[in-house]
Each structure stands twice: as structure tokens, then as C-alpha cells.
Amino acid sequence: ETGVTQSPTHLIKTRGQQVTLRCSSQSGHNTVSWYQQALGQGPQFIFQYYREEENGRGNFPPRFSGLQFPNYSSELNVNALELDDSALYLCASSLQGGEAFFGQGTRLTVV
Amino acid sequence: RKEVEQDPGPFNVPEGATVAFNCTYSNSASQSFFWYRQDCRKEPKLLMSVYSSGNEDGRFTAQLNRASQYISLLIRDSKLSDSATYLCVVNVGGGGNKLTFGTGTQLKVEL
After folding, report:
1. Which of A25, A34, A58, A91 is in the most buried spot, having the most CB atoms within 10 Å?
2. Contact at 8 Å (CB) between A90 and A21?
3. How much of chain B, in percent, has pLDDT values that exceed 70?
4. How many CA atoms lie within 13 A of A46 on its CB side?
5. Chain B residues with CB inside 8 Å of A100's CB?
6. Helix (H), strand (E) at residue A35
């Protein structure tokens, strides 16, 4: 167990809808990163939050947005869902520059 | 060209075999390097960090060649439980853990 929990574990949404995924980081970790893993691919970096501020972003459109709260938990929001957004969404928590610990992921299916 | 390239496999090997995985990365500014293991439908877990001096952890040996931008993982005396996808991971640095993953190499160890 990494101490990183994500909710929900599975989700089915319709194209065009909006979704919010949640992540509770490991106790004491101030950095949360989000990754998208499509089937047969490695995880792709979406963005990172450090002390409630966005600290880097990958090649994802603005409809992917996030938040980090004072307790360092985080949300990933995706608007206007597309079929290609179907993937495993992984959250990783760490201290800045430290080892990243992944949650079990949220499997999103867009139909 | 992908930032981190791996042979996707699958590598099917008998129990007890030695197997080697290779990976190349394109960003010469990359600062830290890792191998992660991912079991089917699970989150990635850190297997080992990779250093230029090489490092060994039991049956696993990792090596980094910065000049060639090449990373390797050697598994000796393969076990059935080693069956998984092995992800080559690079951190370009600049603060935080913005990890760049390869697509992964699938290993199947058979009786």
C-alpha cells in the first residue's frame, strides 16, 4: 500500500460530459502529479501541483484542469469528454524531488 | 521520435532464464532514471533507480550510459512472479517529479 488513494476506481461517462477525479496524497507529501495511461501505452504526464500551485504541465488541452487543496489532496477535472479520453488516470504523490508513489488509478470509460 | 523508447515485447522466457531490457531517451538534460514495474491493471511501482555506476538489487541489475542515452535492466534467474510490464522512466528535472515513461516492455515468464 502506497498510502495514495484515488476515487472512484471505475467510471463510465458519455461523450461531452464533465468528470472529476480525486486523489488523497500520502501523509506529508506536498506534490501531486496526474498521469493518463491509454491501453498499451506508458503513463503520460498531465500536470503537477506543488503547495496548491500548478508546477508544470504536459501536452494536454485546457479542458484538463486541476486543483490542489491545503491538505495536499487533489482533483483532476476533464470537460467536454471525448472518446479518446478513455484511459487509466493515475495520481502520484511525493515530496519535491522525492520518490513518486502512485495510487491504484481511476479507470475512465467514455462512451 | 518518442522521448523514451522501449521494445514493447512481449518477451516470453522460461523460468530461470536471464533477460535484458533496453531503453533509449532523447533528452540529454535528463537527470534521473528509473525502472518501474506494472502488473496488469495495477499502478506502476518503483523497481529501482538507475545510476551511471550501475546498481544491483538481488536478481536485478540496472545500468545507465549517459553518453549513449541508454538504460538497461537485467533480470537473472527469472521467476513466474516477474511476469509484468517493465517501464523505463526518465525525469528531466527542474524541480518536482515530472516523469516521462516509455511504453513498457511486457515480460512473460513460463514454466
Report:
1. A91
2. no
3. 97
4. 27
5. 46, 97, 99
6. strand A31-37
